[in-house]
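Structure ticket #2291
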Amino acid sequence: MLDIANALFEVYYAVFGGFCLQYFLGNFLECRGSKRRRSGFCVAAAYAVCSLCIGHLCPYRYEDIRVIERQAALFGVTVLLALLFYRAVRAVTGYLLITFAAISQISFFIAYSVLQMGKQLYGVWSWLIEGKRLVDNDTVTVILCMTAIGQLLLMYGVCTVLCIYSLKKIIHSFRDKEHPIGRTELYFLIVPSAVGLLICMLLRFLVVTAENGAPKLLYDQHPALTVVVPVIMFLCLLSILYSVKLFQDMIALNRERNNRIIMERQIGSMQAQIAEMEHIHSGIRSMRHDMKNTLAVILRLAGQGDDNAELQEYLSELNRNFDSLEIRYKTGNAVVDTLLNMKSHELAHMMPEVKLYADKLLFTDNIVIGSYDIGVIVGNALDNAAEACGKMKGGGEEPFIRLSSFAKGKMFFIKVENSFEGKVVRKKGMEFPATDKPDKKTHGIGLANIKSTAEKYHGGVDWQAQDGVFTLTVMLKNERSTENEYR
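Resolution: structure written out below.
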């Protein structure tokens, strides 16, 4: 009965390992086939069958080189399955395979140590038998058999829980799965897993020794190892888990730092452009005022003759051109007015089919939010909206960009809507839509800058895409930021 139970547990552990492998790889790597579930089932089944075959051909023996052979063969199977069923030629694949092997082995040894601690029950049964409290041989056999099965159940249960928890923790902590991993970063991630795996291999050699030609467990010779080994294994497991968290925190910190630098440059450039445009518009307004007066006098003088019809037409056309220099958008914020007029002229030249509406974008005198912070939000939102409209192939409704604003209590909202074609892809663990740009490192910086600016005013960013319209809503608290503003 015990042999049957042991065989069933081995089958269970092989199937469970296959399930964990396809679950772990599937969260990082792209399947080669279109049917993800079928590929996952094939990976799990192939791993389970290969694991059982390897276990039959290379059984564990103390002080035997087959310990290495078995682990190497099993690792080779995982590599082969990754290459066959996933687009696995990536730096992260090596980390995933080594980490999976390490977590499997570490979880097993922690569970095996729990099994060794449970052997104290046999001492209780021995005491009862020696005290002749248990005299029925059949009863003793059943008790010993059930105890062994219970210990196996506990061991594989602990191993299952640890393995699933660790893999889920890594998947959850590895938020930015699209980040390209460099050589140094790969070393940083692999080292804890490799160390844990090597320690497990060493324990495979040492856990069973020979004494007078008979095998004996190292735990029996050194009972303290029942505590020391699981502690070492647990620390190895923690180092693997927290190395991932630290790596992701470093990525987030570097991205935030880079975004901050880009935003500072963007704001500095915007300041210079706005100052220059304000100067130009001021000169144009002054020139327009003077020239309209001059043209009015010339038209009056030209109208006194009969042969000046052509001159009058020319001067009238010139007067209409001066009217076109009038600033079209007046929101109550000079920075936003300049941005809107600049973007309007740019769209008219590059994408004349795009309609820009900003009649409902208004800033009253009680808005105390920094002008340049508003400029960052509107400028980045306009750039993203214009880019989305530019990708539309036509044939449907005219592309548009619509801006509006409204206040609710102390909160001020800026809403930007634009038409777009296709669908928005939001990958797991990513806050903003995925990009189709070739430069993945700088994607989403515009939205990240908008979010960073909104958070200065205890606000946030929300977006949704529905029926061909992308809507970005930015919420800000109408009070001056406590952070340093770029003015």
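Closing remark: The chain has two domains: 2-260, 329-487.
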